Amino acid sequence: MTMLDTDRALVQAATAVAKLRCRSDNHTVAAAARTADGRVFTGVNVYHFTGGPCAEVVAIGAAATQGAGELEAIVAVGDRGRGVIPPCGRCRQVLLDYFPSIKVIVGTMDALRPVPVAELLPETYVWGDHQLDAPMAVRTGQWPMPSVPSSRPASED
Ligand SMILES: [Zn+2]
Known about the structure:
Strands 1, 2, 3, 4, 5 and 6 form a 6-stranded mixed sheet that branches. By secondary structure, the chain is an alpha+beta fold. Helix content is 30%, strand content 19%. It has a single domain, classed as 3-Layer(aba) Sandwich (Cytidine Deaminase, domain 2). β3 and β4 (83-84) form a beta hairpin. The chain binds zinc ion.
């Protein structure tokens, strides 16, 4: 996959937030996520020894807070000029479960590329509530999975 202008803008958004808001050990990474209709939501990590959330998760929460629907792309950028950083294992799992078709922008700053999240998490663990519905879809890599558990409120779209 090649970088779109909107992907480059997403990297710029996360870079700007990292520069502006990541100025302490509590906040060291910024993330920016984009909806299909072009809205961008950002977040910073909330470091804490008890397991504070990564920037990607905070951006997902910010998007949900604003009533965003499906996210189609996300990127994280480190503080102190570290550039784009790939999502940790936990975030890969969260992104895959929430947005199976999301693209994650990874790579060095001179060679960025959007990658489907499923490619970042081969042989994926299937969240318990999904297991009975779609084990073959997972094994064959045929995303997206069926909708999220019915205990959740319906999305707005
Ligand atoms: Zn993470």
